[in-house]
Amino acid sequence: MTEFKKKKQYGQNFLTSSAIPKRIAAESGITSEDCVIEIGPGFGILTRELSAIAHKVVAIEIDTELMDILPEKLSGCENVKVINADILKTDVNELIKNEFEGRNVCVCANLPYYITTDIVMKLLEGEYGFKTITVMVQKEVAERFCSKAGTAGYGAITASISYYASVKRLFTVKAGSFDPKPNVDSAVIRFDVYEKPPVAPANKDILFSVIKAAFLQRRKTLLNSLNSFFGSSLSKELLSSIIIGCGYSETVRGEELDIKGFCKIADEIYKAIN
Ligand code: SAM
Questions:
Q1: Whether pLDDT at 35 is above 70
Q2: 3-state DSSP: the chain helix, strand, coil percent, rounded to 5?
Q3: Is residue 110 in contact with ligand 1, taking CB distance under 6 Å?
Q4: Residue 180: count of CB within 10 angstroms of its CB
Q5: Ligand 1 atom showing the smallest separation from residue 13 Cα
Q6: Parallel/antiparallel/unpaired status of strands 105-110 and 165-173
Q7: Residue pair 16/23 in contact by the 8 Å Cβ criterion
Q8: Ligand 1: which of 89, 110, 188 to mutate, most ligand atoms within 8 Å of CB?
Q9: pLDDT for the residue 1
Q10: Residues 6+ positions from 29 with CB-CB distance below 8 Å
Q11: What average pLDDT does the structure give for the chain?
Q12: Which CA distances in Å does 252 have to 123, 151, 237, 246?
């Protein structure tokens, strides 16, 4: 067999020892009753650990060349099915309906770094009812995902994520644990997906528009950001009275608001527009 050459364009930095996959699986919250979607099994080092703890694992791998290698790497793992597909193009509702018999479904992956945010947002925004999503990402991205309102890493992504899940940083993984060795360290984080979001906005699209507007220009006040975005339909005076009416100063910045604050303001904007 010719030697497999790892593909940079697919983010193929493979884990080299089973200690880290074991720990990822152990801290993922997955039980023997649960089913798992793994994204990017690579050589199957994490897949084997997931197979050992879960009822069933479906692993989605984009690289067709790995389809010849994985059956041998996963020999004995009877509860694993590998599908050759791009996770970003996969119909996740269909997958869940066809593969998992109504059981709880978790996601677990050492994510390809070039599409980390796209994957995480697809999994959360799809509201597929996952129990947990445990992923390894670049350390800086983990810090951003876990940052709280008012801190430097907090942004539109973090605020949006907090509508769907609570995020916990589990542990750091050194760059030397991968082949090839990436330039940065990684961290494993776990999203505990809410069954019910912490806020119930009058209009979800307006809530996410407010969040997006608030971070378009970080140095602007929330008032100026909202005015740039909603100014064609609402006056600046009205936006100012909404912000003050919600208990904030006129000079507050978007990064100071948590999801509850954004929801309060979005609901008032929704009322004013309608
Ligand atoms: N799980 C293995 C490990 O921990 O050693 C490999 C992880 S590697 C960081 C990322 C894996 O995701 C690779 O196997 C890569 O081919 C696969 N991948 C990249 N883009 C993908 C996509 N869009 N859909 C599915 N798999 C993808």
A1: yes
A2: 45, 20, 35
A3: yes
A4: 10
A5: 9
A6: unpaired
A7: no
A8: 110
A9: 59
A10: 106, 131, 132, 134, 190, 192
A11: 97
A12: 31, 14, 15, 11
Write the CA distances from 117 to 80, 81, 111, 145, 160, integer angstroms. 26, 25, 10, 9, 12
Give the pLDDT confidence of 83-126 residue by residue, as tens digits: 999 999 999 999 999 999 899 999 999 999 999 999 999 999 99
CA-nearest residue for atom 21, ligand 1, is 62
The edge-to-edge listing of strands for the beta sheet with 105-110 is 80-84, 56-61, 35-39, 105-110, 132-138, 186-193, 165-173
Distance CA 209, CA 191 (A): 23
Q: Are strands 178-179 and 80-84 parallel, antiparallel or unpaired?
A: unpaired
Instruction: For 153-212, write each residue's pLDDT tens digit.
Output: 999 999 999 999 999 999 999 999 999 999 999 999 999 999 999 999 999 999 999 999
Q: CA–CA separation, 138 vs 184, rounded Å?
A: 7
- Check if the beta carbon of residue 188 is closer than 8 Å to that of residue 174: no
Structure tokens at 13: 């930095």
Structure tokens belonging to residue 74: 């996963």
Gap between the terminal Cα atoms of the chain: 66
Task: Tell me how long the chain is.
Answer: 274
Amino acid in the structure at residue 169: R
